[in-house]
């Protein structure tokens, strides 16, 4: 449950805001950003996810000005840590409005990957997207503050 003024809360974001989501999968994309590219990527991920009858991995997605970290909700094992500087786009899908996705450059291959997650409610998917946008802004502010004195 998010407080009404959560958009103004800088403190928890510095520590990291946590969301429990289900990981749907990943697909490679051509472009770093764009609504059409993301929508097509999400369609591919959702279609593939529907075919496989496996249970989705439940993850705790933590958003902070450092980036996004994913940890397995059951084992608490770290799955992935993505620097804010590697993330080029994030969105809540218009049709699949419980789906949050982000595009990031792979640390290993340098390829652009779109990762999609299913949230329990539309509002949560939107909250994750807004939180990532805030994290970008804070990271930029922090970066500008450290480089202002040079």
UniProtKB/TrEMBL annotation:
It comes from the Eukaryota. Pfam families: PID. Residues 16-141 form the PID domain. InterPro entries: Adapter_Engulfment-Domain, PH-like_dom_sf, PTB/PI_dom. SUPFAM superfamilies: PH domain-like (SSF50729). PANTHER family: PHOSPHOTYROSINE INTERACTION DOMAIN-CONTAINING FAMILY MEMBER (PTHR11232), PID DOMAIN-CONTAINING PROTEIN (PTHR11232:SF81). This is ARH protein. The gene is Ldlrap1_1.
């Amino acid at each position: 449950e998010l407080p009404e003024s959560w958009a103004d809360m800088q403190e928890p974001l510095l520590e990291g805001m946590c969301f429990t989501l289900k990981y749907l999968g990943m697909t490679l994309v051509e472009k770093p950003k764009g609504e059409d590219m993301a929508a097509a990527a999400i369609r591919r991920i959702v279609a593939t996810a529907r075919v496989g009858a496996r249970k989705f991995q439940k993850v705790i997605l933590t958003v902070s000005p450092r980036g996004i970290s994913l940890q397995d909700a059951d084992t608490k094992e770290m799955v992935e840590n993505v620097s804010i500087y590697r993330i080029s786009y994030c969105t809540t899908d218009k049709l699949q409005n419980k789906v949050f996705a982000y595009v990031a450059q792979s640390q290993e291959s340098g390829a652009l990957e779109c990762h999609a997650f299913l949230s329990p409610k539309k509002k949560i998917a939107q909250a994750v997207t807004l939180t990532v946008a805030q994290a970008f802004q804070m990271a930029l502010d922090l970066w500008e503050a450290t480089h202002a004195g040079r």
